[in-house]
Protein: Glycine betaine uptake system ATP-binding protein YehX
Amino acid sequence: MIEIDTLTKTFGDTDAVDGVTMTAETGTITVIVGTSGSGKTTLLRMINRLEEPTSGEVRINGKPTHAEKPHLLRRRIGYAIQGHGLFPHHTVARNIAAVPLLLGWKKDKIRARVDELLTLFSMEPAAFRDRYPAELSGGQQQRVGVARALASRPELLLMDEPFGALDPIIRARAQDDLRRIQRRLGSTIMLVTHDMEEAIRLGDKVAVMDGGRLVQYDSPAEIIAEPATDFVRDMVGDVERPLRLLSLVPLSELVENGPAEGEALPAEASLREALAACLSTGRSAVPVTRDGVPVGRVTFDAIRNRAELQA
Ligand SMILES: Nc1ncnc2c1ncn2[C@@H]1O[C@H](COP(=O)(O)OP(=O)(O)OP(=O)(O)O)[C@@H](O)[C@H]1O
Structure:
């Protein structure tokens, strides 16, 4: 559990972070979202003490971070930033192994961990292990950056706009990968973004920052359904609200018996994906499968009714 307790950082006359209190549960993703200058990065950097708080404290599993030497603390906390920050003259394997090497892990254990992570990120170890960062695409470099931050199984992974440099399609895939890998490894992640769409897609909890203050800390569904302030409402965007709500509901909630033509979607896909499938192919229903086995269909009408109910 990560407890942020009345944390404040003042630069001259600016309260970059102003009395923020929140608790993040182990094994969850917390997304900190806000406009430029709202204090997101400063908040994140106080957690691993790249920035020292003016007042307040952070506790990780009950232990205050100020009780530990910053460089030791940082070995327990992964950190991934936009543009990945890979060492250009080291191979992919050596980059991923950076912290395990520092921690003195045995060679075999490091190699097994590097291969495990590359496989998790859908990068064939034999093909990628010995390449240099310049020999990878932007999306692959970003994946190696996240793999490196996860390598030593950190208690906490901090990510600052990790997908900021990626184009929209690769970005969506990177978000899905992160979610899948986080679930698999049970990692605890705090991620900063200015993109509400990303926050809603990734967060178990979303923390909205405005002018250094935490203005709402809730689940994505609560943020969309009941924005605490006009600022949060603006960030969510009224027009997109029904679509955003649909993106949070799995097909399994609306599946019914009956036929449907065309390509099927898995039961855990969202109503938003089913809506897109209906609209792009002119279908009035989409077949649904669970573990590859057909379980029924979701109709366009049912999706529309659900969107109207929630709007
Ligand atoms: N080292 C510093 N010295 C002085 N002021 C700073 C420093 N770092 C940040 N600030 C100020 O603190 C405020 C919050 O900055 P911060 O970088 O945390 O915001 P942010 O929400 O992460 O913004 P962005 O999305 O643009 O990165 C800003 O007004 C910024 O100018």
The domain at 243-309 is CATH 3.90.1280.20 (CBS domain Like).
